[in-house]
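Q: Convert this sequence to structure tokens.
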Amino acid sequence: MAGSLSQEQIDAYRRDGFLCPIPVFDAAEAQTHRAAYERAERDYENKLPRPVQDYTRTNAHIAFDAPRLVAQDPRILDAVESILGPDLLLWGVEYFTKEANTSKIVSWHQDITYWGMGETDHEVTAWLALSPASEAAGCMKFVPGSHKSAVVDHNDTFDADNLLSRGQEIAVDVDEGDAVAAALQPGEMSLHHGRLFHASGPNTTEDRRIGCVMRFIRPDTPITGHSKDFAMLMRGCDRSQTRINFIPPAGDFTPESLALYEEVIAAQAVALTAGAEQAVGNYQPA
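A:
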């Protein structure tokens, strides 16, 4: 497998909870994928049941073809397979965008806190840069080794400047001096564990910071706190049948794909909004 990680890289991921940068696309390929995303934003604005940003921000691979094509790229799947093994499910895809010259940030958090999967090690997030993700642009920063801890308490802030759905932040002090910046060039990606402490600062540059973020899990990843979840089989076999496997209809924002999107969002909302005192992002009926 051309994109497979070396043993040294795998060991680094196990030790630190993240790995970067990993070259995936050249600059021209990255620009092509960025253009497809921005074309969807432009062409479907005010033409869908929800704001188009809802569909690009959560489970984008269900709504239109472009993010699904990114997630299916063998260079990405080879790297993820090196961590999770040959049986791979795609649980979610989102475009995570910070506009130019914005004060928006992402607070220190652990991804897996609200996913309804418990404290599993059976998942990995692939974060692919489609524009420069420098420190000035608000790239991610990680605390190495923090994935070895349990899921810690988080507080919901619902802060307007926080891009997370609940404005969630870790309820323990994080020493910024321990953090490592995960700067990426367009076409490079990072991999990180769902329990890893991570955050990002504002984008002070003149360009948008755009990442295509893919959440991969093993088929035997548990479901906790709710009874129904969905995923897309990308490689191998789903012997456990823990989740409902689906193949999204081809095409962009078709009636069939929009109906499937609502079904998946409704199921995931049971876990992702549990305990919240306010509405949580787009995990609400359209």
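The chain is about 25% helix and 20% strand.
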